[in-house]
Amino acid sequence: MTFSLAAAFQAEEHRSFTWRADHDAAVMLIHGFPGTPAEMRPLAEALHAQSWTTVAPLLPGFGAEIDTLQHRSHDDWLQFLLLAYAEMRRRHRVIALIGLSMGGALALQLAAHHSPNALVLLAPFWRIEHLLWRAMPILKYLIPTFKPFRLFKLDFNDAAVRQGIANFMPELNLGDPSTQRAILDFALPMRLIDQLRQVGQRGYSAISRVSCPTLVIQGTHDDLVKPEVTRHLCRRFVKPPLYLEVDASHTLLDPSQPSRAQIVSAISEFLSPFHPSGVIAHD
Predict the structure, then answer these.
(1) Residue 3 φ then ψ, to 5°
(2) What angle do CA 104, 114, 232 make, to 5 degrees?
(3) Can you list the domains of the chain with their CATH numbers?
(4) CB-count exposure of residue 183 (10 Å: 0-12, 13-18, 19+)
(5) pTM of this prediction?
(6) Which one is predicted more confidently, 173 or 114?
């Protein structure tokens, strides 16, 4: 069968959104790879209810534009976010950044450019503990494509996996072996995966220039961004971040995660001191 991701991202929930509040405090929520603002909505709803303006941009080449993703670069994503941040700064004195997975690497770079009031990193991606990942600079010239869904070790008999896929692609028959093979065999250019590697490395390099208060949340069952890798990243900060490990996998904000309420509560508590309109922003 022909497997097209673009058809899965047509719904409104996958598009950029801005939910305004009365105060001059705002949060930018940056999605991961290959996600959309839909994965940030549960957290955005909670923060908006606490009078934060919530801004969730759709990165270039994602969502309904995913057919163009292979032509995008890490610079495209960062420059897009720098412009979005500048627009937020014109409207708000207080800005917090929240990045999920690859969005965490981009949030680190953004925070190094423009010191926000606070930074939250959720399962921040910067490398994968695999020999092939270290060989990526060479492999991109030798191997033309990469199958991302095989990286996640999808178990199609797992109810949570089936529900997660159904949320994006409800029309798929996940009980059909040919459909399962088509998902697992969906391929992306290796050049694009190398762009992802570079995003992670640039995020890691940017940490030494990040000075704002930071909260890092990591799932103990994360098979993609492993806890020990995130602990290593945390040790690079000049000012040690608050660090929280929770009972969760990589998709920290997914409704199936047992600790999602704990995660949302921890973020809300961390950000609350920065919200009062009298807070003086630093940029």
Answers:
(1) -105, 115
(2) 35
(3) 7-129+200-274 (3.40.50.1820)
(4) buried
(5) 0.82
(6) 114
